[in-house]
User: Fold this.
Amino acid sequence: MRTWGMIATWRMAIEGVTLGSEMLKNGEKCQDVLEKAVMFVEDYPFYKSVGYGGLPNEECEVELDAAFMDGKTLSIGAVASIKDFKNPISIARKLSADRYNIFLVGAGAESYAHKNGFVRQNMLTERARKTWELRVKEIKEKNLSPYDGHDTVCMIAIDQEKDMAVATSTSGLFMKKKGRVGDSPVSGSGFYVDNEIGGAAATGLGEDIMKGCLSYEVVQRMKKGETPQEAAQGAVDEFSKELIKRRGKAGEISIVALNNKGDWGIGTNVEFTFCAATPTEQPKVYIAKLVDGKVNIEITSEEYMRAYKEKIQREI
Ligand code: GLY
Assistant:
């Protein structure tokens, strides 16, 4: 039987997954599907942790990270701390075709994007600037830690020819230091995919995800025969415990996984929304909650979706 499938992190991915699932159904390639679907998220100004409208660093600059990996060739392309370009995912995908210089940062990434004709855009929205100003005030008044928010959009797809790819894009940690890079553009930590096994991608506190190379870990668990659900939840549970044992606390970590049969699963140590679609499952937003240490997955209600839409567009 011909199959296809797609899974992505967070509620913000649903429009991209809906678009992507139509493309996969029509026989389009997973690489094109993921680039288009992630571009949708990057372009939408109300998603505040990815692309245009993403929240800035401590100097009020939007620095973006993105990566692309092809599961057939294991080709990887990535950019980090890139400013003023509309679609970092497209730049990462283009880099994945190269033999050398596949991971570019800052001014070097911007120079490459300029030379290759990628669209320039000021990525700081008025809304993101206001959010930054409020946060600066709050940090001063309440003596808060500056760091907050780090939702990456991660998408994994398998197409009808059984090829797989993964893509990630994020503005990273809100109020991060200039030049800070999280897990999202780092192979093995923020993403990994291999046509012969499957793929995984992570969202959450990059500083902790990188300590466990968690996306590679999930793919290796699937190689040993675990289902995507067993692999993703097992890796998050074990590594969160390890972090608590050694460091006293574990950051928020969530992982999506898809194997090369089109089965999906997730792992998380917090409440987490994600989107998935297969030939037998319409594109939907799911919510994973931890109940007595076990993960419980449900389809989100219409009321939840309405409240989410209202919240992200609320006046600041
Ligand atoms: N997981 C995204 C980041 O930490 O930047």
Observations:
- The chain has a mean pLDDT of 95.
